[in-house]
Design a protein that fits this description.
By secondary structure, the chain is mostly beta strands. 13% of the residues lie in helices and 37% in strands.
Length: 398
């Protein structure tokens, strides 16, 4: 198993902007790994302070700036993460000018080399809604945030991923080449309103579905209609025609697609598949993989493997780990691993970097990547390998 590669840290350099000529104060350095931050009070704007009030001291303003830097650094990373769900190669400097009032703040950008509207708008909301300490009321300050793009992204919080829809179908792109740098696998989350359908469509690439609730599957050839329940899977190899129908209520499912790629159509709210209405011969049906037929070995219940789906391209399991269980560091030489966490939490260490896993994490681990995991609470996740192979090790006795 593996999870998230740490994203770049934001470094903030803060200066009060005004027009008087006080000498520059000492520049304190913000502690913290991988983050350099300094603050300087260049002037005070006494004309904004009531005559009968005592202006805050330089030390008070420095302390207020330091407090803001400490609190805004992690929040700025959330803004980066929210933007990086669409692409991970976001980097540059954003210099925000903040005019601070007691109950609000006005934010403009003096410089933006990141050129990402989602990131800058998130930062603007963050800075305007932040509760600035009283010593900074009536001041204008500048905060430059520096972001560095990682080589790739391993863990994404699906709670940050936007949904896009067409008709009764909506799609969220959880993993693709744009946001991970790995074109081995893509992962979507799909929602159908009651009465909705995907339509009968070809799977142009191999698809592995995990159903989070009941649905109806329809194909041609050997499969006319079949009901699936929450926890069941479906495998459609490339060339299969399949239709998913919300007959009894809304349908929610995770869909992994192999190989992956840049999923432009899915980001627009449509699964990247062709209508199956012009076939000269009946295409093969999808394969339903009910949970009741899956085999459990130790902590893993295997649904799809070469022996069951007659295909070496994909393996899919449900992995369950109790609190405190550790999977030691290991490597998959030629396989990509993907995880869709259903519940639980833990710490994933990838190439020596520890990262948090939450109930809304999705994960991709490229081949030849060292990783280990320790569960902080009982964990359940859908585990996918492409190509198949590493799942076989779970059949051995622990």
């Amino acid at each position: 198993m593996t999870l998230w590669r740490r994203v770049g840290r934001a470094a903030a350099v803060v200066a009060l902007i005004a027009g008087c000529g006080h000498p520059e104060s000492p520049r304190p350095t913000q502690p913290g790994p991988g983050n350099a931050a300094s603050a300087a009070v260049e002037t005070s704007t006494l004309d904004r302070v009531p005559i009968d009030a005592q202006a805050p001291s330089q030390d008070e303003r420095l302390a207020a700036i330091q407090k803001a830097m400490n609190e805004l650094d992690e929040a700025a990373q959330v803004c980066w993460a929210a933007a990086a769900v669409e692409r991970f190669d976001i980097e540059g400097e954003i210099v925000a000018t903040i005019d601070i009032a007691p109950t609000s703040a006005q934010v403009t950008f003096a410089r933006d080399t990141a050129r990402n509207a989602k990131l800058s708008s998130c930062l603007a909301r963050l800075l305007s809604q932040y509760r600035w300490a009283p010593p900074l009321h009536g001041q204008a300050i500048q905060l430059p945030f520096k972001f560095r793009a990682p080589d790739g992204q391993n863990v994404i919080d699906r709670a940050l991923v936007p949904w896009n829809g067409q008709g009764k179908l909506a799609v969220a792109v959880l993993l693709d080449e744009h946001n991970t740098g790995n074109d081995s696998i893509s992962m979507f989350e799909l929602a159908l309103e009651a009465g909705g359908t995907t339509g009968l469509r070809y799977a142009d690439r191999a698809e592995l579905w995990y159903f989070l609730g009941p649905a109806t599957i329809q194909g041609v050839g050997g499969l006319k209609r079949a009901a699936v329940a929450a926890g069941d899977m479906m495998y459609a190899r490339a060339g299969v025609a399949r239709e998913v129908i919300a007959t009894t209520g809304p349908v929610h499912a995770m869909v992994a697609v192999v190989p992956g790629g840049r999923e432009g159509s899915a980001r627009a709210g449509a699964l990247p598949t062709r209508e199956a209405n012009s076939a000269r011969s009946a295409p093969p049906p999808p394969l339903v993989l009910p949970a009741a037929a899956a085999k459990t070995y130790s902590r893993v219940t295997i649904f799809a493997e070469p022996a069951t789906i007659k295909d070496k391209l994909v393996a899919a399991s449900l992995i369950e780990m109790g609190r405190g269980v550790t999977i030691p560091e290991h490597v998959h030489a030629g396989e990509t691993e993907a995880l869709y966490v259903l519940s639980g939490a833990g710490t994933m260490t990838i190439n020596g970097v520890a990262m948090a896993v939450t109930p809304t994490s999705v994960v991709q681990i490229p081949p030849n990547t060292k990783h280990s995991f320790t569960a902080a609470s009982d964990l359940r996740a859908v585990q996918i390998y492409t190509p198949a192979g590493p799942e076989q090790r779970f059949k051995a006795r622990p």
